[in-house]
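Human: We require from you a protein record containing the residue sequence and its fold in token form, and nothing else.

Assistant:
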Amino acid sequence: MRSSTFLAAAFACFTTSFAAPTADNHNFVLHEKRDGAPHQWTRRNRAHPDELLPVRIGLVQSNLHKAEEYILDVSDPRSSNFGKHWSAEKVANVFAPAKKTADGVADWLVKSGIDAGRHTYSTGRNWIQFNATVSETEQLFNTEYHYYEHDLSGGYRIACDEYHLPEHVREHVDFAMPTIQLEGMRPIPNLLPKLAAPSPITGLTGLANCSVLTTIECLRALYQFGPGNGSAASNAMGIGEWADFLYLPDLPIFFKNFTTQPIPADTVPEFISIDGGQTANYSYDFAEGSGVESALDFQTAYSIIYPQKLRLYQVGDGVNVDSVGTFNIFLDALDASYCTYLGGDAPYVDPAYPDPNEGGYTGPLQCGGAPVSNVFSFSYNQIEAALPVSYQQRQCHEWMKLGLQGVSVLFASGDSGVANRYNAGYENSCLTSPEVGPYVDINGTRFSPSFPCNCPYITSVGATEFLGGVNGTIAGGEMAVSDPDPTNAKNDYYSGGGFSNVFPLPSYQASAVTHFLTKYPPHYPSHIYNNSGAARAYPDVSALGLKLATVYLNHTYGIGGTSASTPIWGGIVTLLNEARIAKGKGPIGFLNPTLYAHPEAFNDITVGGNPGCGSEGFKAQPGWDPVTGLGTPIYPKLEALFLSLP
């Protein structure tokens, strides 16, 4: 990313007077528009007409309207094709654009002065790319480009506020870049982990102390699962990390004190570096807490799944501070076709490699080659309202494609109740009223959903704690997590949940969500949350997310967050896959249709809520609710269920 110094120099040099676009726009129609001023970006001068832009036009894919039909065909327990997952080749072929789409867009470009010799195509011809000047691009899209400066980092991007396409072309184009993509500076970890006072390495094991420090013994007793006993090569579990680095010396200490089956001290995850992702074996300041998230994820998962393999997907070079879109560069590394899917990564939104920053990753963007795990656990998310709808839809479809291939994807639902954490101080942010937005607003009152846990093709995980707090017991059950911060209410921790403003209600959860809205209707009007009854709702499930035993820099902490509950669920799904593989069956893949069809396999959580945005949020109720989802796992019932399926 270029600095604000460069930006100032650009303004000093580009003194040409700018003329408005001269394209014949009588048949142009609006294609995309940014609603309002972007959060934390300030519009500066008009972009210089001679500056080159790497223009990418994403072509409309075939058969995406059948996405839910396809995914349910292989994941609905009532389907005769349950478990018959697709090959990567079949996925690519089914969703390839129609020839008339590619030809129609190419013909328009030629007629607009973008000669065919300048066009390049992706593998599968999913997008058309060419370099064009700002002047050419403004005429092509009937728009105006400006420099935008980021208020915190000083970085700049070139973007427009809206753009247009000829009416006969619009039906063939998903979206074009660079255009309105600005928001979502970076994925935000769900929680800057709350560190309880360090406890002794020993003395808090056993079942009597679970509400003070939750160990693998507590989890096994509560959710009734046993230790892992298989290590099938095809059943690795993957965890993605971005801003955190695993400090390996903590693992042997954790294994020695907090696992009930022997784990060799030299056990480490398989390291998968993506676009310069680094290990922690270098000079790094861990004093500020960087590393706690990774420690929590890996120690929790290892205690559940060992001897099954665990993979660390370390994404990004740690230098590229303009690292929005890192879920995309993760997906690029898994699937070479995704690098170019629907236009590929967004210039000025997704990070570019080689990284020009000092010490940055100097290799090219990784495109394929990373191994694909059966289960992925992610403790990061972004704010739904801060990203273009087209951008979210594009990525959601890729999670769907992984589900078609037998991969289970789990995302933490967030730690701010019905609010969200966006800014550098991790304070909660909400949205303005839809009459003037919705825009991200730290003082807003409208509930703020998260992405990608709003995507209907992933499993979103909320958090619970023992009912009774520090005096709770395993026998006493669970409630929705409640961990207010007495020093700053904006840092209170509650299970993230709510209703998307982007994605519709999937059929697999329609009955459960309708039951909640009908039987226990929240008393909030439509300007507070999407109460249409037709929106994707989350979370889907929950697990304990408070005081999980974690060793960090040779101290033991009780760590909280849906960042804790998500690797618990990832580990449990890995055990379920292990049981299926032992019976000669394949991995589960997309979980939700089966989970929603069998609510009896869950501990129903009916106490607690998820306040935020100046409200009490939603309440946990009998059945599914937007606080804890279906509830927490009853492993024997889940295992019997999934072993009964093909």
Observations:
- Confidence is low (pLDDT under 50) at residues 1-25, 184-195, 319-325, 341-349.
